[in-house]
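Q: what sequence does this backbone want?
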């Protein structure tokens, strides 16, 4: 089978109401989100008044949970207008002080040296096959961090992906909707064709996407190029407590780095 063709701009259109169904086990799971925020609190020791940027943060599930716990200075930035508006509406309905911004993570337009912590959660780094684009995100994160500020990357575990590679998977997202995924792995890139079918309404979506696989030394090299130091890795990170194929969310690596 030949390589699954992937539009390099796939990330501009995937993250919508269908995505919230196909990935609901991870991104709409309140218990899992609370567990991940528990981890952030323990791992980063964020202060209540620290400024936090949730970069590529979608509908802001982590920042909204931080705000519920009394952290009052979170900003969520994402390219998806649908997810940004959803998060903004939730923050307004719940009276939570979270700011939502729609922008490209490579060039956010935000003021520099503004944040104590920049978070890139849930495998939202590595969408670009070209390292230069992924490096641009890290350079922007460096610009946005205050001196002494910390970047946290929540990355797909490339070793786990290679060792446990499955060329296809099927799961029931709801009683009515089935998600089929075909995967191809070539060197440092995994390509996916996703088909979402409703028993009542038929085909909801057929699309493709990809994720760049990074080994620790490659991530460290990019972070150093961006200017970061004090780089630390935590492996075997999984917030799902029951076994299963959760796609790119199954097994991850947590990386922290500090702006000097």
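A:
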């Amino acid at each position: 089978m030949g390589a699954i063709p992937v539009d390099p701009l796939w990330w501009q259109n995937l993250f919508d109401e269908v995505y919230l169904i196909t990935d609901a086990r991870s991104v709409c799971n309140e218990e899992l989100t609370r567990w991940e925020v528990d981890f952030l609190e323990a791992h980063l020791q964020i202060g209540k008044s620290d400024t936090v940027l949730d970069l590529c943060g979608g509908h802001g599930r982590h920042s909204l949970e931080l705000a519920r716990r009394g952290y009052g200075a979170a900003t969520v930035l994402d390219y998806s207008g649908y997810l940004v508006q959803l998060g903004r509406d939730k923050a307004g309905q719940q009276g939570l002080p979270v700011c939502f911004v729609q922008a490209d993570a490579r060039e956010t337009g935000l003021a520099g040296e503004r944040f104590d912590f920049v978070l890139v959660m849930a495998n939202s780094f590595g969408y670009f096959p070209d390292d230069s684009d992924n490096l641009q995100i890290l350079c922007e994160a460096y610009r946005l961090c205050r001196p002494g500020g910390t970047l946290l990357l929540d990355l797909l575990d490339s070793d786990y992906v290679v060792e446990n590679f499955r060329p296809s998977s099927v799961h029931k997202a709801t009683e009515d909707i089935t998600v089929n995924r075909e995967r191809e792995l070539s060197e440092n890139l995994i390509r996916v064709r996703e088909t979402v079918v409703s028993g009542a309404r038929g085909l909801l979506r057929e699309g493709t996407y990809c994720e760049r696989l990074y080994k620790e030394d490659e991530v460290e090299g990019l972070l150093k190029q961006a200017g970061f130091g004090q780089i630390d890795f935590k492996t075997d990170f999984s917030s799902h407590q029951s076994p299963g194929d959760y796609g790119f969310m199954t097994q991850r690596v947590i990386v922290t780095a500090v702006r000097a």
